[in-house]
Specification:
Number of helices: 12
Largest sheet: 4 strands, mixed
Strand content: 5-15%
Number of strands: 8
Structural class: alpha/beta
Radius of gyration: 19 Å
């Protein structure tokens, strides 16, 4: 059972400051999927401007949409452990907030980043599938592959942009939880590249400044399709299938998966 936190007045004030600033920007800067799911958390009473939400409430509400659940963590996890969990539709979140002296910026993740930035889009089926695909790729991956996947994750789940209605909108949690980054990403200052996980896997990134480069996807399904091609390029003799009913993952030898695909194509 997830522990209930009694947040201080200072923490509540920090939450309120960031919540108010972000909700001003979401309608014009966030992607349409985020602007659809975020209000659902507000209308249900899980999110509100007066207090930080409790993780057990967030997790239960989120699970009803896509099966994703939230688990508490005291701090940063090793990249492999963090990505592995996403294969099972589990996302780790802290329960602490950034310092009240700097409410609009934090150099490391806190619950504002994880709950306001990440959680709403995990309620979108296409995005849930996209994020889980990165988790799948991390299972059985080498240390070198984990490093490449961490960059793919950074340039998509954390700092991804997408095309919508003739304009560009944010879907990455690192953007959606930072008022400054949310405004910066849609200016002419950063470099925008078409989403390419092969290229993203090779690019270093800063962690204490606004991003100089963002990748722009056509949509989540197209992003996942390109991600799947990248994953297929990894040296793995197996593929994975997720069973949402018992939250288990089945390992399928690569040659058997290829035969099943060929059989389905033949029947078409």
């Amino acid at each position: 059972q997830i522990k209930t936190i009694d947040y201080t007045d200072g923490e509540k004030a920090t939450w309120k400051t960031v919540f108010d600033k972000l909700t001003e920007l979401f309608p014009t800067h966030a992607c349409k999927q985020f602007n659809y799911t975020f209000p659902l958390f507000v209308e249900s009473g899980v999110f509100g401007r007066e207090r930080p939400p409790q993780l057990h409430e967030v997790s239960a509400f989120l699970q009803s949409f896509t099966g994703y659940t939230i688990r508490p963590v005291a701090g940063l996890l090793p990249t492999r452990d963090f990505l592995n969990a996403m294969a099972f539709r589990v996302f780790f979140s802290t329960q602490y907030l950034r310092h009240h002296s700097s409410p609009l910026y934090t150099p490391e993740p806190d619950m504002i980043h994880e709950i306001l930035g990440h959680v709403p889009l995990f309620a979108d089926p296409d995005f849930a599938n996209f994020s889980q695909t990165i988790g799948f790729a991390s299972l059985g991956a080498s240390d070198e592959e984990i490093e490449r996947l961490s960059r793919v994750y950074w340039y998509s789940i954390e700092f991804g942009l997408c095309k919508q209605g003739g304009s560009v909108r944010a879907y990455g949690a690192g953007i959606l939880s930072s008022p400054g980054e949310l405004q910066h990403c849609l200016t002419d200052k950063p470099k925008l590249l078409d989403w390419d996980p092969f290229q993203a896997a090779t690019l270093e990134f800063p962690i204490t400044t606004y991003q100089p480069t963002y990748f722009v996807a056509d949509d989540f399904r197209d992003a996942q399709k390109k991600l799947k091609k990248f994953i297929d390029s990894l040296d793995r003799p197996f593929e994975l299938q997720y069973n949402p009913f018992n939250q288990s993952i089945q390992t399928i030898p690569r040659h058997a998966a290829d035969m099943m695909r060929d059989d389905r194509i033949a029947k078409l």
